[in-house]
Amino acid sequence: MIASNYQQQYLKTKVETASPGDLTLLLYEELYRKLNMAKSYLQKNQHTEMFERIDGARAIMYELLGTLNFDYSIANELRSLYQFYLSQLNLFVIKKDPELLEAVIEFAKGFAETWKQALQISKSGKGN
């Protein structure tokens, strides 16, 4: 219980001190983590726990949608991607088809890895 409190405090501090780019990375990483946990619970037929992780993943995707800056054209493409993968998650909830969930997991993994690389390039000054 005490370790959990320390972990929560660490995460809170990490979020409060993160740059907008780092916050986006945290969202992608948490999305990936929740989706993998949902997959694990699906395999164990623990549907209540699975749905809790799916709900958390959907909340993250809605947060990502809400943070889009439409001053940049890429925001429209990101919105389309987020909406598509949200629809895939919703379809997964109905059909319980693991392939639907796996597609969303791969999306989250790919975006987390790409965003992490972009941040590293940006922070090293190579993006200029």
Automatic annotation (TrEMBL):
Stored InterPro entries: FliS (IPR003713), FliS_sf (IPR036584)
Domain of life, per lineage: Bacteria
Subcellular compartments: Cytoplasm, Cytosol
GO biological process, one term: bacterial-type flagellum assembly
Signal peptide residue numbers: none
Keyword Cytoplasm: yes
GO cellular component: cytosol
Keywords from the UniProt entry: Bacterial flagellum biogenesis, Cell projection, Chaperone, Cilium, Cytoplasm, Flagellum
Short name of any one Pfam family annotated for the protein: FliS
Family to which this protein belongs: Belongs to the FliS family.
PANTHER family xref list: FLAGELLAR SECRETION CHAPERONE FLIS (PTHR34773:SF1)
Protein name: Flagellar biosynthesis protein FliS
